[in-house]
From TrEMBL:
PROSITE patterns: AA_TRNA_LIGASE_I (PS00178). It comes from Lentzea tibetensis. Coiled coil: none annotated. One of its GO terms (cellular component) is cytoplasm. Residues 8-91 form the Arginyl tRNA synthetase N-terminal domain. Monomer. InterPro entries: aa-tRNA-synth_I_CS, Arg-tRNA-ligase, Arg-tRNA-synth_N, Arg-tRNA-synth_N_sf, ArgRS_core, DALR_anticod-bd, Rossmann-like_a/b/a_fold, tRNAsynth_Ia_anticodon-bd. It is an enzyme of class 6 (ligase). SUPFAM superfamilies: Anticodon-binding domain of a subclass of class I aminoacyl-tRNA synthetases, Arginyl-tRNA synthetase (ArgRS), N-terminal 'additional' domain, Nucleotidylyl transferase. This is Arginine--tRNA ligase. It is found in: Cytoplasm. The keyword Protein biosynthesis applies. Keywords: Aminoacyl-tRNA synthetase, ATP-binding, Cytoplasm, Ligase, Nucleotide-binding, Protein biosynthesis. The keyword Aminoacyl-tRNA synthetase applies.
Amino acid sequence: MLRGDVGLELGQRVAAALRVSLGVEITPEEAVIRPSNRDGVDFQCNVAMSLAKKLGKNPREVAALIVGALDAADAVEEPEIAGPGFINLTLRTSWLESEAVSLLTDDRLGVPVVESPRRIAIDYSSPNVAKEMHVGHLRSAIIGDALSRLLTFVGHEVIPHNHLGDWGTPFGMLIEHLTETSDAGDDHSISDLNAFYQEARQKFDADPDFATRARKRVVALQGGDERTLALWRDLVDESLRHFQQVYELLGVGMTAEDSYGESFYNPFLADTITELQNAGQIEESDGALCVFPPGFRNRDGDRLPLIVRKSDGGYGYATTDFATIRYWIRDRKVDDLLYVVGSPQSQHFQMLFAIARQAGWLTDDHTSVHIGFGSILGEDGKMFRTRTGGTVKLADLLQEAVFEAGKVMPEKSEVDAADQPDVARAIGIGAVKYADLSNDREKDYVFTWDKMLAKNGDTSVYSQYANARALSISRKVGRVPEAAARIVVGEPAERELLLKLLQLPPAVQAAIEGYAPHKLTGYLFETATAFSTFYNECPVLTAPSQEVQDSRLLLADLTSRVLTLGLSLLGIEAPERL
Ligand code: ARG
């Protein structure tokens, strides 16, 4: 049984009632037990409606049969049948209290470990070398890191890899430009490299001779010319240092060891193509080698190709991605492939997966998922840019976040002066991450400091405040609860809060199932809100009795643990004091 997951527990009871009364087998999930907003109702069960249709019976009649056979008097009050056949369920307070007992001693706060762990390779961040990371790379890093944490927490083996754009034609022009500038070989800082890229690009577009030399450079690079390779390494290393700084500031778990740039797969490209050829996938078209995944056509109805070898013999983005799939599945023996990459590349991945299945690299034992996401927009609703219209550099943005966070710290902060920079960082970086994660990832969202740092809203600051406040209660009371103390529910606000605290498991489950971190942020917001009502309505320092005070201390402590764990699964810190 999944400890602490109230909805599933009730689902199990409903499933048992159906077996007894109608001889129908369903899973606990199929009982569709959802939290209810109706006054005095905690959960609603909708299964009678869908079943009635299948059984050719009246839904209210089915509901009555379920209720008649339901063995749940220990957990719920007398169920009520409402409307066309909903079953309204209200938990018994005594049951909530006994569930709380097991939660208090459980480090996982009820979240179960999966029965069959998978080995999962997750591709996230994956910026391009020799260009500064910009805000577009932010979403991939934040979402990928949060999903890695969630999947790891429930027991999967997660292997992140950074598919750096570190190979291919742009390097010809970059290296050629490097050899022609006076400071060739000097240590370039990354901001210089950014400008450097622009210069090289301009030369490439304007000067056909340069373009020819750049193309020759690509051949030299691919042919393993030593001097060319050394220059290339310089460019890559400089970029890596910069990326690592950003990951550290962002608190993202991607490390230098997780770098598997496009260059890594270079030695495997020829074999990859041979295998595609042997699998009968390759067609020649205008001198290029192509694959045509079935079902992909353009507006005119022509089949869409992925080019695996250009007519000049060069390999492209798709070829490397085929080699990547082959490597992770075959050599690294992963079960599943996840790609956290912007939605514009959705078709690319669907085409890759289709061919990889036909080639036999992916089988029914593997899942491969493109986890797409929308863009970050400025307040004008257009692509997020700096005031002067340039692309926003990630490092600048994150510095600004920490600066802005300083403004929302309380005047009479409980934080020691020495710790304030760390706390400002936790708030500022947390706000940027939370704003990203709390939006449905497939949608675009608007980047607004005011909104993402609002103390009273669906923000990380709000949950961080609730957590710090929960922890400050026991400091103020100055004692810990008796060892035998229990949570006893008196006030409605206590009941509401406890009910929320018991529902971390389905929130985590939902976030994982849909690769949808916003399901978890939504839960944390509701929990912080329930705590805030509790905080206003249920005094702890001046509680009517020691028993009540103990219970409230336990509730506050549990709130802090739920918020801290929930935020940490999203890669967001929860400072103990604010
Ligand atoms: N470097 C690419 C870009 O910035 C993203 C790579 C995503 N991963 C992949 N396996 N194709 O667009």
